[in-house]
Fold this sequence. Notes:
By secondary structure, this protein is mainly β. The protein has one domain (24-158): CATH 2.40.50.180. It has helices at residues 71-74, 148-152, 155-158; strands spanning 14-20, 26-30, 34-41, 55-61, 64-70, 86-94, 97-103, 105-112, 132-138, 141-146. The chain has a five-stranded mixed sheet with strand order 8-1-2-10-9. Strands 3-6-7-5-4 form a five-stranded mixed sheet. Strand 6 (86-94) and strand 7 form a beta hairpin. The termini are far apart. The model is unreliable at 1-9 (pLDDT under 50).
Amino acid sequence: MSTLTPTKRKTTGEMFLRLQLDRQTTAVVPMLQTQEAIVLPAGRVSVVPNLPSAVMGLFNRRSSLLWLVDLPEILGLEPINRHVQSYDVALLKVGQTPLAVAVRSILGVTRFAKDEISSPIGSFNPAFTPYLNGWILRNQELVLVLDPEAIVNAKVLND
């Protein structure tokens, strides 16, 4: 009779929600500032005229109105296709400010230690850098570590 050794799961480090922003760009946001991830039917989004193009509209979630914004567009990447049946959305909350961000897809949850994060200064386009806490290299893949507070306070959303 053989004994099985249980596989140790990596349980150290902080938890992050993984997001696909475009074909080449993967990013994470801290789970501490993430309320939930949902698939939102496009028909539930009410377009509001005369707002920046990154603002996709408003929708009702649990008796609250939330702004839906195009996260890739805020970051200067290719905007989300607006002619789809549904959007992959991460609901972020910074302090008392909620914000829903649309992304290409939500890839699940991952963990890594804060000391794995490298500084974004000098590594990326200066226009992109204010939205980053840093980056990590994981399994040959560059993963951006986003700053939810900077996204909520993005100039394009507050003009």
